Amino acid sequence: MPDRPHQIIGHGVDLVPVARIAKILDEHRERFLERTFTPGEQADCAGHRRESEKLASRFAAKEAVLKALGTGLTQGIFLTDVSVVSLPSGKPTIQLTGQAAHIAAGLGITRWEISLTDTDGYSMASVIAIAELPRAQQ
Fold first, then answer.
1. I need a labelling partner for 135 at 20 to 30 A (CA). Which of 37, 54, 92, 122 fits?
2. What are phi and psi of 32, to 5 degrees?
3. Angle ∠(52,92,66) on CA atoms, nearest 5
């Protein structure tokens, strides 16, 4: 964590059954991918031997972000407004666009901490929304 003072604005956790995502992929693949994941997320997961698990963990992260924002899928937010992006090190990060970015900015959120995990049966995400505080508020 940076040495700048900060405040936790929200925390979200979500657990997704991998079989649920696999079933949706089998039945509605293109529509589900287009409505739920950004092109970058789709490219990161495409052809991966554990595609369902990777997509399930990203889906869980999106839900966890919406919980941390306190909005759910309301106020004009779309699932594609929340994107899980992997840094070159492999560490996942969150990028927001659209209304999700607007709401996060209004809440003062400047940084996200995210942890993803999955097994053969479940994928889970924990997300913390953080606001950096001016030094005077230490």
1. 92
2. -60, -50
3. 80
Instruction: Note down the domain range covering 76.
Output: 6-137
Question: Quick check: is 87 in a domain?
Answer: yes
In this structure, what token pair is assigned to residue 126? 């924990």
**Domains held by the chain: number:** 1
> What's the DSSP call for residue 119?
-
Q: What is the CATH number of the domain that holds 69?
A: 3.90.470.20
What is the rounded distance in angstroms from the CA atom of residue 92 to the CA atom of residue 83? 10
- Condensed to tens digits (0 to 9), the pLDDT of residues 40-93 reads 999 999 988 899 999 999 999 999 999 999 998 888 999 999 999 999 999 999
Report the distance separating Cα 129 and Cα 10, nearest Å.
5
Alpha-carbon distance 62 to 65, whole Å? 5
Q: What pTM was computed for the model?
A: 0.90
Grouping H, G, I as helix, E, B as strand and the rest as coil, residue 97 is coil
Q: What is the mean pLDDT of the chain?
A: 93
Longest CA pairwise span in the chain (Å): 54
Residues 6 or more apart in contact with residue 50 via CB below 8 angstroms: 118
